[in-house]
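User: I've been trying to design a sequence by hand for this structure and keep getting stuck. Would you show me what you'd pick, starting by listing the structure so we're on the same page?

Assistant: Good idea, let's start from the same input. This is the structure you sent:
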């Protein structure tokens, strides 16, 4: 059987959504997990030329998107970055974390390779939301690390879940990935939801004065595979 192209999937999904009894009220959908492609558009950026794809789903009703480069073809060994949204890092140039450079570096790498996906996961603050992340920042200013700050606010240290990202990947025919990450937990979670990780591709940027402590916490308390010895000050 031919693997449908992303364009075909989108055409079918948009048609399906037009006739879906729930329309855009995905929360009312009785399917256990329902993920649909709702839009696709050309996406030229400073980092390369991509296609941007918008999804809807019935689980969290968040606007997760994919930025796709090239033909994902048979869906095997696709270079993938699952990037958790970080308004402060991605858009405002925050030096409290390494999110902005990680996102932009992933887009550059995928552009260079000519084939791959950035899945922009609306999981701000490891899933606790933007304002709660700012509350955690205030606790960090008082001397707690990001792990303890999340726990003090009543959240798990990492509240992210990868069921929807995995369903989005399956939707466009991705079966196995080369995952750009330093986080072994992300590899395990994705495999738990049925996406094979054929390779973990390290995605480390040199620390600087402002994010060194944050990266140290990632390494020591979240088990990220980081080598913090090469500085860039
Ligand atoms: Zn960040």
């Amino acid at each position: 059987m031919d693997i449908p192209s992303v364009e075909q999937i989108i055409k079918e999904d948009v048609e399906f959504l037009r006739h879906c009894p729930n329309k855009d009220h995905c929360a009312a959908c009785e399917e256990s997990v329902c993920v649909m492609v709702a839009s696709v558009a050309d996406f030229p950026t400073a980092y390369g030329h991509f296609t941007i794809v918008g999804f809807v789903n019935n689980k969290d009703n968040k606007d997760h998107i994919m930025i796709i480069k090239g033909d994902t073809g048979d869906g095997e060994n696709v270079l993938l970055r699952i990037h958790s949204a970080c308004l402060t890092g991605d858009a405002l140039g925050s030096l409290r974390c390494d999110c902005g450079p990680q996102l932009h570096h992933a887009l550059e790498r995928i552009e260079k390779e000519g084939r791959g996906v950035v899945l922009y996961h609306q999981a701000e603050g490891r899933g606790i939301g933007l304002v709660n992340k700012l509350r955690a920042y205030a606790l960090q200013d008082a001397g707690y690390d990001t792990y303890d700050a999340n726990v003090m606010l009543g959240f798990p240290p990492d509240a992210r879940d990868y069921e929807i990202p995995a369903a989005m990947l399956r939707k466009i025919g991705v079966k196995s990935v080369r995952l750009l990450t330093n986080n072994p937990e992300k590899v395990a979670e994705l495999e738990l939801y049925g996406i094979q990780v054929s390779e973990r591709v390290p995605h480390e940027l040199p620390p600087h004065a402002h994010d060194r402590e944050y990266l140290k916490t990632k390494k020591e308390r979240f088990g990220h595979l980081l080598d913090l010895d090469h500085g860039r000050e």
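That's my pick for every position. To get oriented when you compare it with your attempt: The CA atoms of residues 109 and 116 lie 9 Å apart. The mean pLDDT is 89.
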